[in-house]
Structures are given as structure tokens and as C-alpha cells.
Amino acid sequence: MDLDFAAYGAERAAVRTLLEDRFGLLADPQAMLFHGKERIIYSQPAKGYQVDVFFDRLRFSHTIDLGEPGTGRLDRDFPTLTPADLLLSKLQIHRVTDKDLKDVILLLLAHRLSDGDDTDAIEIARVVAPLADDWGFWKDATANLAEIRTMAGRLADTGLLDRTDAEAVREKVGALLQVTEQTPKSRSWRRGERRLATHQWWNDVESVVR
């Protein structure tokens, strides 16, 4: 079993005190050496589970910034990230799996899309903003949204998803793709399009030996 947490960098000392002193978790020394500023990987040998703690940003195939204490994304919902941030955490995956696609389908079914500031909904502006600033993120996210739409139809065809639910997912995906397409792109996005179109546009996710 793996547990994933996120915190602000300013909270690193408090997080370490809680997890190491109170819960007896052991930090991976190799991961600490290379990633300790932005990520600490823990194990619980007696009970066999592992814990990842990310600070300030989620850095995988693409990076999702969480902001700063008081105004950041971690202040907006509890105990998890907001639905919009959870969606981004799936859309950023370069090599997406069927499990990831199904996770997004469930997320889309559980939450409506919102044009406003609504942490119980998927805030469209939050999803679209990083995609309009990062061409590589945009490329993988839009490809994954297309895969999600296809997966919803396939699950409906096999009877694993109600057709009404499948259509609701497809409509939400269509709305997200439309807004993403219509949103003006930044200079950084344009530079990425020119520089990365024929090169690797995603980060390799390192496999850390625990």
C-alpha cells in the first residue's frame, strides 16, 4: 500500500517531526539525497506500507505547482486536493493506463464542471491555466482527455458503464477540450511548441528504489 501526501516546503520540518517521531516512519536516504527538498519517501517496515510526501509541487511527467501557504492549492480543500488538482494529476501522465483513465471517469462523474471558484466542483480555469502555459503538458493532457472520452464509450459498449453516465463524461471532456482550445496560449507555450515538437516533451518519472 502507498500513501501520497502534499505539503508546503515551509512545513517540511513539521512534517518530518510528525511522520518520523510520532509515526516511526523511515526516510529513504537515497531519495533524501537526490529529492529531499521537493520529496521525501518513507517506509514503515513493521507494517509494510510506504509514504510519499511532495513539497510545493507535484513533479511527474509534468509539474503541477501548489503555490504558497495561505494562498496555495493546499489551502482550498481538505483532506484531499481539489477535484481540479486531482484531475490535473491524472492528465499530466505521459504513459496513461486504463486504471488512470477509469479514475478520471469516476472523478468526472462525481463532480460537475464550474466556471467559478467552487472547490467542490472541477474548476475549469484551474485545469486550463497550466495547459495554456506549457505546451508539453497541453499535448499530453489533451491526448489523455481524448482517451478518456474513448474509454467512456468503450465501457458503455461492454455494459460496465451506464450509457447516460458515459454521455455525461463525454460531454464534460468535450467542454474541457473546447475551453482548452479557445484559451489564449502564453509565450512560454509557443516557445515549447517550437522547441519540443520534435523532441521529448515530458519528464521521465524516476523509479526510486525503496
Descriptive account of the structure:
The chain is an alpha/beta fold and 210 residues long. The protein folds into 2 domains: 54 residues; 139 residues, no CATH class. Helix content is 49%, strand content 15%. It contains 8 helices and 8 strands. It has a 4-stranded mixed sheet with strand order 1-4-3-2. Strands 5-6 form a two-stranded antiparallel sheet. A two-stranded parallel sheet has the order 7-8. Strand 5 and strand 6 form a beta hairpin. Helix 3 runs antiparallel to helix 4. It is globular, with a radius of gyration of 18 Å. The relative contact order is 0.12. The mean pLDDT is 93.
Structure described in brief:
With 210 residues, the protein is α/β, with parallel strands linked by helices.
Largest sheet properties? 4 strands, mixed
Q: Report the end-to-end length measured between terminal Cα atoms.
A: 13 Å
Task: Provide mean pLDDT, rounded.
Answer: 93
Q: In total, how many domains does the architecture comprise?
A: 2
Shape: globular
In percent, how much strand structure appears in the residues? Answer: 5-15%
- Summarize the amount of helix as a percent range: 40-55%
H and E order? EHEHEEEEHHEEHHHH
Judged by helices, strands and strand pairing, the structural class is alpha/beta
| Strand neighbour order, sheet with most strands | 1-4-3-2
Rg: 18 Å
Count the helices. How many?
A: 8
Compute the number of strand runs: 8
| Low-confidence residue ranges | none
